[in-house]
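Tutorial sheet, problem 5. The two components below are modelled jointly, 584 residues in total.
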Amino acid sequence: MEFVNPEGLRLDGRRPMEMRQLRAQIGAVAKADGSAVFEMGNTKVIAAVYGPREVQNRSQQINDQALVRCEYSMANFSTGDRRRKPKGDRRSTEISLVIRQTMEECILTNLMPRSQIDIYVQVLQADGGTRSACINAATLALADAGIPMRDLVTSCSAGFLNSTPLLDLNYIEDSAGGPDVTVGILPKLDKVTLLQMDAKLPIDTFENVMQLAVEGCKAIANYIREVSDSFAREYQTAGVSTWLVVHKKGIRAHIQAPNPCLVIVGLSVVKSSLETCCIYRSCHLLSEFNSVNLLKS
Amino acid sequence: MVGLSLGEKHFIQGGIDQNLRSDGRKRDAYRPISIETGVIPQANGSARIRIGATEVIASVKAELGRPNALQPDKGKVAIFVDCSPVAEPMFEGRGGEELSTELSVALQRCLLGGKSGAGAGIDLSSLIVAEGKICWDLYIDGLVISSDGNLLDALGAAIKAALSNTGIPRVQVAAGASGDEQPEVDISDEEFLQFDTSGVPVIVTLTKVGRHYIVDATSEEESQMSSAVSVSISRKGHICGLSKRGSAGLHPSVISDMISVARHISEQLINKLDSEISAAEADEDEM
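Model answer (structure tokens):
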């Protein structure tokens, strides 16, 4: 099959080194601490981050760093022909593991000992490159949740078909049987954190293909930084201040709290409830949490 | 999971007693509803609906299949719901299965009618291509993206919107196949048939908290419920299905009272949904 026509265009009309259109949106899930939707062409994933919070299963608690967990799931309607798959099949377990390891690498887990961060990614539409899209979505969601990170990890894939290196494979190109190199990088530190390839490739060609994928990652990193910066600006100009409704035995009181803030009742930190609420959003480091008020219950 | 202190519980219950809920709504008021159609291009029809912080996606996929031998003149419809862990960490792994099944069964009961297929909101005989041989199988998938209570109503509305967004390809059946042979079919790429969704009911859930009942409960309010009654009502005001959740018993007179209130509310909801759906379709056409 011809994947690159004589004019040098791919099946979907792209040039070999062209990426699909990127689209990202921060804050898609209201109840999550951080969330984002990331689209690469027709591939669309949604990521949500819950935490840092108390470890749910005590036996998994780590005393000197945060526990990072990840679950990847695909919607029934995400693929071309409808399939109903059992949860936790081998493919999704593997991808969950890959995403977890990649994100764990960039989160400053040592700042949040004895806590847990959950990353959930849900594929809404799969058209190749779901792994990369999931990592990019997870990065944005972690940034939205205000979790301290070394850098914003980004990921992109590249392949080699019709003796041409191709950036950002779609489903048809991905299932053509050629090599598929998925790379994840820390763009500022200039380090590779994820590298996977199937099928075989001569070493010197591999270097080219990998270089192409790295370039793709860098382009995505620029885009992600743009999105998160414009989101942060919007957030600041909106001047979000939150009215907390505090209730004690029938007395209703309003307290205006600056954002970010953390309200502590008694000795326990209670989140997202009516009595007290703390806003983790836009806190970049735990030390930045500004405990405005100590309310004795 | 909602963890509430005693004070918060009293606050919610007190608000409902005074007809002023925590978010400023009255007992019979919905949160703002917004609908977007055609969100999943690979499906025959799809819609995303937001009710406050609750967000669900419904998609409709049509596949050619064989009708059931007992009902050769009817197509088949199946409804599945999936609760994504994105919505709630509790749904991780198999955690969402129980709720997913509960919602799927309730939706089936509310939208598909009995075993005979009679009284279904979707006209099953319109899904027949060649009687006894070929029919359309509709797979309706719901996905919960963000959960803040009232999931059943949201899913019902999303399915209604997705169905009105659905185009089923026109199928030509080659003549000449006789007996048990499967006839050859030609699926058109251009001509699509629209569904008549005017008969698809809406679901109104009334949640009983204390002595009163409320519509469109948030998850905090749902945690305080004693029982909830979901009524599916068509545009004509017919009750198409009913299910009661929660362990507390209800007096029969309360139930009939709830049904009549639900009927009254459903009129407003149907009008609201119809205008949102047509606005969403118009938006999609513009794109």
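Marking note: The interface with chain B takes residues 28-32, 35, 42, 46-48, 50, 56, 71, 73, 75-80, 82, 84, 87-88, 118, 120-122, 124-125, 245, 247-250, 252, 270, 273-275, 297 of chain A (CB under 8 Å). Full credit if you identified this.
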